[in-house]
Structures are given as C-alpha cells and as structure tokens.
Amino acid sequence: MTTLAYGTNGLADHRLPDALALLAELGYGGVALTLDHMHLDPLAPGLADRTRAVASLLDRHGLEVVVETGARYLLDPRRKHEPTLVSDEGRERRVDLLRTAVRVAQDLGSPVVHLWSGVLPPGVPVRVGRERVLAGLEQVLPLAERAGVTLAFEPEPGMVVERVGDLVELRTVLGDPAGLRLTVDVGHLTCVEDAPGPDVIRRVGHLISHVQVDDMVRGVHEHLELGTGEVDLPGVLRALDDVGYAGLAAVELPRHSHAGARIAAESATALRAAAEQAGVAVRPPSVRPADLEVSR
C-alpha cells in the first residue's frame, strides 16, 4: 500500500517543525526530506543532535521519511546542483554528501536515500559521464549496504541518467546490486519516456523504492500542480498498486513554496481523489474534507 507524502523542498518557506506539523494535519503519512540549509543542513555543526531532534518530530507526527539530496545550492552558492557525480571537479564533495545522507537516513530510520547523476559538462562524452557515475556509486554503495539503506536513483530529464532504461543499464554494469534501486518521478515518465507512465511502472516495478508525484507535459521539464498537466495520476497509482509498491508517493513541487500550505492541502485532495478513481487504498486512510482546509 502506497503512503501519501510531501516533499519539504516544496515547503522551503516553512520552519521544519511547522512543515511537519502541517503535513500531519493534512493527513499525509510521510515526508520526503531534502537535506538543505533551511531544514536539516548536512554541512552545519551539530548534525547528529539536530538529526535526533528531527527523528523525534517525525515520530511525534507519525510520519515515515525518505532522505532526498537534490538541494539546489547546498554545495556551491553560485552553481545550481553543482558539483554532481559527473562534474569535472568536486565530485568527491557530492560523494561525501551522499555518505552523510546515508548516515542521516540511518539515524532517522529512513530506508531510502534518493539521488541523481547530474548534467554532463560541455565537451565531456556521455561514456565518461557514465563512468563517473559508476565510480561515485561504487564509493557510496558499500556504506549504504552496511547501514541497511537503499540508494534510490532518479532518472532526471537533461542529466546523464535521464531515462529509466539508463538506470537499468547502470545496475547491470554494477552487477545488479540489491542496494541500488529506482526513484520514479511520475512527471518525468510523461516528459521523456516513450511508453505511458503506468506501463513503465509495471515494467520496472520490482526496482522502485521511492516515488515522486507531480504533473508535467510531454517534452517540458516543469513540475506542475496535480491536475494541470498530462500525467495519468489514477493510472500511475493503480500501476503502483499492481506491482505491490509499499513506499512513499511524495508530491514534488520544489518551485511552489510561496504557496506551500495551500498546495499541500490541494495535493492531498487530488491524491485521494485519484486513488479513489483508481480503486486503490492508500496510507493513511481517507480523511474528511474539513481536515484538509488551510487558509489561502
């Protein structure tokens, strides 16, 4: 049974305790926690103590958690997402961040750390980019396996690992490690995959460890509010149910923090309506419409 969740990168204007309380009030059962300066900063002093405090908050609100590593300017204040696993310089800083994320996940009780590859620098062959991704994964996977944490790799439009098939190929090269699995962003499926999103999910369902939910249109990488694009959300939820997925389905709207409270409420309503249309159960069970009211 899928657990409805929301990403903290869509609540960047909220203090983390307020964001978690809001999500619990709205009936979400989980949170996709992006390690970033405004919530749980992985680079600031006292990380262990701050992580314990977050674990306590999650427990108080009954929220499951997945750790995400897609903060925009965490490692470089001038270059979005840099350095990445495929950068010409600084790749070791990304690897260190992923190692830290694994330790944070272990301390939070999160079974999953989300990650992606990065945009290939100009002039660098794709082959070299993939070699760099493999080298980075080989450094992080042993730690994740010892910690009992799965690395859930997200194919991202415009990055070296762009499609689901790219991740499947990487896993094959690495010997199909159990600790390396897949993050599916359902908007990305609509944006770049050839087959319909539900069909892709059914094809690779055995690999899915994390799901991000947003709307999108074909060929345009822009995260849209649910119901405003071309994603077949009931079909996606039905496919996840068909493959026995039991993790988080976390709304991923990183550019919508200015209206985060309203959009979190409307997204909860949209997700439950889609689940009802699909005829599938989600966790937590349905709540009354009044429970989802948030001031505009």
CATH architecture: Alpha-Beta Barrel
Q: What is the number of beta strands?
A: 11
Relative helix content: 40-55%
The proportion of residues in beta strands is: 15-25%
Tally of discrete structural domains: 1
Protein name: Sugar phosphate isomerase/epimerase
Keywords: Carbohydrate metabolism, Isomerase
Domain Xylose isomerase-like TIM barrel: 20-273
Pfam families: AP_endonuc_2
Characteristic terms for this protein:
296 residues, alpha/beta, TIM Barrel, 9 helices, 11 strands, Sugar phosphate isomerase/epimerase, IolE/XylAMocC-like, Xyl_isomerase-like_sf
Question: SSE layout and pairings?
Answer:
Layout: E1 2-7, H1 16-25, E2 30-34, H2 47-61, E3 64-68, H3 91-108, E4 112-115, H4 126-147, E5 150-153, H5 164-173, E6 180-185, H6 186-192, H7 197-204, E7 208-213, E8 215-217, E9 220-224, H8 233-242, E10 248-251, H9 260-278, E11 282-283
Parallel strand pairs: 1-2, 1-10, 1-11, 2-3, 4-5, 5-6, 6-7, 7-10
Antiparallel strand pairs: 8-9
Helix pairs in contact: 1-2, 3-4, 7-8, 8-9
Short description:
The chain has 296 residues and is of the alpha/beta class. The protein contains nine helices and eleven strands.
